[in-house]
Amino acid sequence: MDQVAFRQLWRRFAELIHENREVLNDLDAAIGDADHGSNMDRGLGKVVEAFNANSEASLHADAKLVGMTLMSTVGGASGALWGSGMLKFSTVLPDAAVVEWSGFIDALDAFVEALSKRGQAVVGDKTMMDVFLPAMTELRDSVDVQEGSEEIVVALAEHAKGWSDATRDLVARRGRAAYLGERSIGHIDPGSVSAALWFQALADTVRDQVS
Amino acid sequence: MDQVAFRQLWRRFAELIHENREVLNDLDAAIGDADHGSNMDRGLGKVVEAFNANSEASLHADAKLVGMTLMSTVGGASGALWGSGMLKFSTVLPDAAVVEWSGFIDALDAFVEALSKRGQAVVGDKTMMDVFLPAMTELRDSVDVQEGSEEIVVALAEHAKGWSDATRDLVARRGRAAYLGERSIGHIDPGSVSAALWFQALADTVRDQVS
Amino acid sequence: MKKIIDAVETIVDQALDGMVVAYPEYLQRVEGTLVLARSKPKETGKVGLVSGGGSGHEPAHGGYVGYGMLDAAVAGEVFTSPTPDQVYAGIKAADRGAGVLLVVKNYTGDVMNFDIARELADADGIATEVVLVNDDVAVQDSLYTTGRRGIAGTVFVHKIAGAAAEEGADLSSVKVIADTVVANLASMGCALTSCTVPANGKPTFELGANEMEMGIGIHGEPGIERVPMMSASELTASLYHRLVAELSLGDGERIAAMVNSMGATPAIELAIMSGHLANLTKSSKLSLEKVLMGEFMTSLEMAGASLTLLRLDQQRSTLLNAACDTPALKVVKH
Amino acid sequence: MKKIIDAVETIVDQALDGMVVAYPEYLQRVEGTLVLARSKPKETGKVGLVSGGGSGHEPAHGGYVGYGMLDAAVAGEVFTSPTPDQVYAGIKAADRGAGVLLVVKNYTGDVMNFDIARELADADGIATEVVLVNDDVAVQDSLYTTGRRGIAGTVFVHKIAGAAAEEGADLSSVKVIADTVVANLASMGCALTSCTVPANGKPTFELGANEMEMGIGIHGEPGIERVPMMSASELTASLYHRLVAELSLGDGERIAAMVNSMGATPAIELAIMSGHLANLTKSSKLSLEKVLMGEFMTSLEMAGASLTLLRLDQQRSTLLNAACDTPALKVVKH
Ligand SMILES: Nc1ncnc2c1ncn2[C@@H]1O[C@H](COP(=O)(O)OP(=O)(O)O)[C@@H](O)[C@H]1O
Ligand SMILES: Nc1ncnc2c1ncn2[C@@H]1O[C@H](COP(=O)(O)OP(=O)(O)O)[C@@H](O)[C@H]1O
Ligand SMILES: [Mg+2]
Ligand SMILES: [Mg+2]
Ligand SMILES: [Mg+2]
Ligand SMILES: [Mg+2]
């Protein structure tokens, strides 16, 4: 993946979040505090602004820009997680304009590990980790496939949506929804939806690169 | 009028106010603070309680009991007016169990004069005086008629209702509704309605006495 | 009607007891009355201050009883002026031998009930004076009608007259000071929602989703005009310019202000208004020396706010900044 | 959504400026941040106190900045924990060379963002400790989940830890005192209406005319149970007994309490609850030494209330009654 694609991925993610802002707020209203869409939208809007204002020298620098921006503009649980995750992500990316697919997956691995460490959530806790953790497993299995394999990322985006949908039946054990206990059943976790949208953005980006 | 009739008049007034409590509050809500029904109902409930607890020796004492009770339990503009009016009324009534019709009218005259003095309202100001002032004129004209003339008090009650209804078209110049200026047009003054109900109670009482 | 109450009839009585529970070091209840008086009365020989009115304006009026402000507060039923016997009980509680100033908001009911109480006090040899607060510029002043209402600006009268009384000014001086406060005081408010009088059980008026009511009184009564919702900036400017015009405030004059919530409007919105106010005063070259921001004179759970401006001179400024210690307003000397 | 605002995006920034307009003698804004700090910082060598969280809880948290309480308050967007860079700016503003105690309510977002800020402070050589407030007994405590939330009881932590810091206690002592406050603290709240998050534009949840939501957090989120409306007496008793059981309060113990409005619930209703509280403590032979009644930790314009109990010992009682002077809480020495 190169810097153009990387930035396109985040621009696309920003678009998807913006389109789904109200959906995300509504999901958060049901089991949280109705701000997840606003939080992510605010932060990603700033990422796009930062891209427009800064042309960084490398993928590492671009990723760091994303991490710093999310960290300082999203707020809430998702801000701390996405922010520290992307900062970790940036440390694994090379000071170069391009990275192999495997290097990208390594960085994503570091991202997810940072999230796990910070948030302590495991699969089944009804959080964004219900998307990120299985997605990482699937991606690691694909590590030998050529970058740009549209098939893999499109399938992954679809699966991510499914994992997110499946949070509906879970009792939340982490995050704000955990306070609701059994009452959280029947509602999809908003953070898992934004995580799934990120994989959607990845798929859209790869598809664009290929075509 | 004797003590029995006097007390019956006030009991009947209390009933009428209680039945119209919400109507009076609603009228007050439109151009005031939504409490005229509650105020009058609270005070008249206490008058009935006071009657039940005290058997006074004279009409004078009965009227004073009414005045003191209203004064200390109604509150607001209507409480000060009805309270001081009835205290004045009591000073004119004899220390006896019965009063001539003319004596009753004299007392009522003192009542209305006390109201005028305290409240400074004239006909057309959109207050209870729009009922009391013309009613006094009509009553004074009837002073020679025998006590218990059902005809007169029934007609008066009807006229009182009409004078009250006519406040609808007036701009309030006294009381809380005055703050609304032109906006007070189109709403009947609540205090004029309770005044009219008092004349209704008088008519009902006289009718009962006669029959 | 959703309220945390037990019965409509006992609201005021229960609330007064609860005030004493929360503020025992400030307040005591005069037994058998609806009067809250200082738990530590001021020295004899000083002028007493009594204020009051219907309940539902909390922290007014009991919240202002304490050092440097009121000596007693008289409560009526919700939005109903107190009765004369209650006011008279308040006068007796406040009297320390130097007479009592009654702070009365210019509503027919308040004026008449306090007047009757004065007659009772007169008969008992307690000297009283009245200051009639009529700061609400929404209402046209007129000799031929009830005139202007008293609203949130009343708190400035409590503060400044209270400080004068605490300093030992005599009754007529305290009255003069209070009257000059009123002469330099202007307020106007707005409602975003109605409130519900408990005894009535339903909202006093209805507002559309995009409507606000300008020039409301403090009894939850309708205002003088219904207008489309404004931004904080427009609203603050509209209230401000009206008040500045009424007071004919000019370059370099000193003012104090109050940004008051009607109840439900949260502090975050008052703070936004306060920011605009500071900018507006800068533009009109007024010196904004003090801002009271918060809930000072409310209408139950109404959403909305009022703005008050008070022209200051050296005396009013000094008295406004004098130490006071009450449940609802404390000026601490730094 | 009817609010006195200009634009959703600028609410917090404008409100912080407005706080400085209203309380210049207490507050200054740390430039370029969402941090309010004391306008007169405390002496060097004393422990600093930082608290914060999403906006919409006014007077929390900026209202508690001042002598005897906080040194800095960090604001996030409405109901959104502040970001680590902002918290770090608060830490720097509060640091007087003796380290800084962070008062953090136990929400995932707050915990994580404050943790990251601590890592930044660490790197800069500023010693920090954290007290995690989790007074909300509506939520089951559990190692395997997020545990209990922090709500209104946080104000007692500000007060007591703040007094200890003002007296010169060192960082580890202030933390121990703060931790024992939390260990003896229990709160629970209810909502009569939802509030509307400005960025969302509609109520977070809907309640029927005869419903209330028990065990709500302070972010306008739904509670743990929906029940029919209760009377003030039933509600106070139900909250009270739950808290007494959680704290295992027994005969003769000393307590302080807070009766807190979620925003729209007026003081008159809080006073009714306070009256019941006093009777309940009498029945259970508890010694109710202090009641804080008012708006201390709100959720925008939500109607509802919370009750907090704090077990007192001599140390906590002394610190609770120590003088403090902040916009929202003043303890004046009589
Ligand atoms: N401990 C955690 N680990 C991973 N994700 C979490 C954790 N806690 C919360 N989340 C995610 O964060 C989302 C909520 O984000 P957001 O609403 O922006 O923050 P907040 O809950 O602070 O308001 C949840 O839907 C959940 O997916
Ligand atoms: N100056 C006045 N003179 C005569 N009647 C008055 C005057 N002011 C008000 N009223 C009457 O009092 C009524 C209002 O009474 P009420 O609602 O009980 O008191 P308040 O206005 O104090 O809430 C009005 O409808 C009007 O008829
Ligand atoms: Mg959220
Ligand atoms: Mg009325
Ligand atoms: Mg009234
Ligand atoms: Mg949040």
List its salient traits.
heterotetramer; A: 211 residues; mainly alpha; Serine Threonine Protein Phosphatase 5, Tetratricopeptide repeat; 9 helices; 70% helix; globular; C: 334 residues; alpha/beta; Rossmann fold; Hypothetical Protein Tm841, Chain: A,domain 3; 2 domains; six-stranded mixed beta sheet; 8 helices; 14 strands; binds adenosine-5'-diphosphate; binds magnesium ion
The second-level CATH architecture of the largest domain in chain C is 3-Layer(aba) Sandwich
CATH class of the largest domain in chain C: Alpha Beta
Percent of residues in β-strands of chain C: 15-25%
Q: Give the cofactors and ligands.
A: adenosine-5'-diphosphate, magnesium ion
Q: How many runs of DSSP E, i.e. beta strands of chain C?
A: 14
The assigned CATH architecture of chain A is Alpha Horseshoe
Shape of chain C: globular
- Determine the mean pLDDT of chain A: 94
Structural class of chain C: alpha/beta
* β-strand amount of chain A: under 5%
Shape of chain A: globular
Q: Supply Rg of chain C.
A: 19 Å
User: From the alpha-carbon coordinates, what is the Rg of chain A to the nearest angstrom?
Assistant: 16 Å
Into which percent range does the helicity of residues of chain A fall?
over 70%
Strand adjacency order, main sheet of chain C:
1-2-4-3-5-6
Percentage of helical residues of chain C?
25-40%
Q: Please tell me the total number of domains of chain C.
A: 2
Count, helices of chain C: 8
InterPro entries (chains A, B): DhaK_L_YcgS, DhaL_dom, DhaL_dom_sf, Dihydroxyacetone_Kinase
Keywords (chains A, B): Kinase, Transferase
EC number (chains A, B): 2.7.-.-
Pfam families (chains A, B): Dak2
